[in-house]
Amino acid sequence: MPTSRLTARAAVAGAALALGLLMAPAASAARAEHTRTVASDTYTVTARTDTSVYAGPSTSYPRRGSLRAGHTYPADCWLMGDVVAGNGGTSGVWIHVLGDKDTGAGFVNVVFLQGDDHAGLPASARC
After folding, report:
1. pLDDT tens digit string along 15-51?
2. Using an 8 Å Cβ cutoff, are 113 and 48 in contact?
3. How far is 16 from 8, CA to CA, in rounded Å?
4. I need a surface site. Which of 15, 89, 94, 125 has the fewest CB within 10 A?
5. Torsion sign across C-alpha atoms 110, 115, 118, 124
6. Shortest CA distance to 91 belongs to which of 107, 71, 73?
């Protein structure tokens, strides 16, 4: 095989390897997205019923604590996750609550919170 073809193949293989290495951290960052927030404002949400707080936007994530009906909690953003049915409604919107002395930060489906489709958070408060 001529040297120029060998050099070209090596360059293509090197570029593919570099691209793969550069893309690998992006996959890890996407998985961590559920625990990071980019919202800077804090809002208040009120629990409609006693409900669980999860580490991510699904009941399959580990449980971090619970909210008590009628109590208010700080929240900073919302995102789409697994669809949940409850309290006469169905929604895939999950609110990121910041927690308090009894509950760690995590996600609660909006059907368990008072208010509109985003529990009073603006559409711009997306995580």
Report:
1. 443 434 333 333 333 333 444 445 468 999 999 999 9
2. yes
3. 12
4. 15
5. negative
6. 107
Every domain of the chain with CATH number 2.30.30 lies at 43-112
Measured CA to CA, the distance from residue 21 to residue 83 in angstroms comes to 34
Token pair for residue 13? 């293989």
Distance from chain centroid for Cα 38 = 11
Tokens standing for 100? 């308090």
CATH topology of domain 43-112: SH3 type barrels. (2.30.30)
Residue 49 CA to residue 110 CA, distance in Å, equals 11
Q: Of 97, 109, 40, nearest to 71 (Cα)? A: 97
Contacts of residue 41, Cβ cutoff 8 Å, sequence gap at least 6? 76, 125
Q: What does the pLDDT look like over 83-114, one tens digit per residue? A: 999 888 999 999 999 987 777 899 999 999 99
Burial class (CB in 10 A: 0-12, 13-18, 19+), 82: middle
